[in-house]
């Protein structure tokens, strides 16, 4: 099943209405697989994880079989969803990381138990990213907040500051050896940088 990445300009040029925008997506090979947000891929690229605003659940849906129906991955055991919680599922589907009450929280999907936390006092939100093997979670702040780029080892709970300053939104290379991220300077603007993780003693197992 092929999915197209559609440039925003293409949608805007088609028509300002939602219907025309959807038509443009379909013409370019796109296909809606679910209603939701915060989509991410499983490690084997066979499943997409996402958050359903309507049902308040983390969901999963297979993309290999035609007509696959979304399934519940994790139901939030709370009365209210934390503001700006930005959930992201690990590639192995075992954990969900999100911005809780002034802390990063990582929950075990099977038990709904919080297995790791990290203080985020004063943070307005966070932009996280998982390593391909689900061993690490990288995260930084929103916009141009100077909160540094952090790396959390899920198994040991060890937290380390990877980079200082306005670095955020980490994204690992598929082999786990490089990290791309945003450098969101209030002066120089948004830039994309790539680093070799072996420089920090981090790499594929």
Give a brief description:
8% of the residues lie in helices and 41% in strands. The chain contains two helices and 15 strands.
Folded structure, characterized:
This protein has helices at 8-14, 18-27, and strands at 37-41, 47-52, 57-62, 71-75, 88-89, 95-99, 103-108, 114-119, 126-130, 136-141, 149-153, 159-163, 167-172, 178-185, 189-196. It is mainly beta and 205 residues long. The chain has 2 domains: 1-32, no CATH class; 78-200, 6 Propeller (Neuraminidase), CATH 2.120.10.30. The strands form 4 sheets. Strands 1-2-3-4 form a 4-stranded antiparallel beta sheet, with no helix packed on it. The chain has a 4-stranded antiparallel beta sheet with strand order 5-6-7-8, with no helix packed on it. The protein has a 4-stranded antiparallel beta sheet with strand order 9-10-11-12, with no helix packed on it. The model is unreliable at 1-16 (pLDDT under 50).
């Amino acid at each position: 099943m092929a999915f197209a990445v559609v440039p925003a300009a293409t949608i805007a040029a088609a028509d300002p209405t939602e219907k025309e925008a959807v038509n443009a997506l379909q013409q370019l090979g796109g296909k809606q697989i679910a209603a939701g947000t915060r989509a991410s891929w499983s490690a084997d690229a066979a499943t997409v994880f996402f958050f359903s605003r309507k049902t308040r659940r983390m969901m999963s849906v297979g993309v290999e079989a035609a007509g696959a129906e979304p399934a519940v991955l994790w139901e939030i055991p709370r009365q209210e969803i934390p503001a700006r919680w930005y959930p992201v599922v690990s590639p192995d589907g075992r954990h969900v990381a999100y911005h809780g009450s002034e802390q990063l929280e990582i929950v075990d999907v099977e038990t709904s138990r919080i297995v790791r936390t990290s203080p985020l006092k004063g943070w307005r939100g966070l932009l996280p990213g998982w390593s391909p093997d689900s061993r690490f979670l990288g995260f930084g702040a929103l916009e141009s907040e100077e909160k540094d780029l952090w790396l959390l080892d899920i198994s040991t709970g060890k937290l380390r500051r990877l980079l200082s300053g306005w670095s955020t939104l980490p994204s690992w290379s598929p082999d786990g050896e490089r990290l791309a991220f945003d450098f969101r300077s209030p002066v120089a603007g948004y830039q994309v940088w790539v680093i070799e993780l072996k420089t920090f003693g981090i790499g594929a197992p």
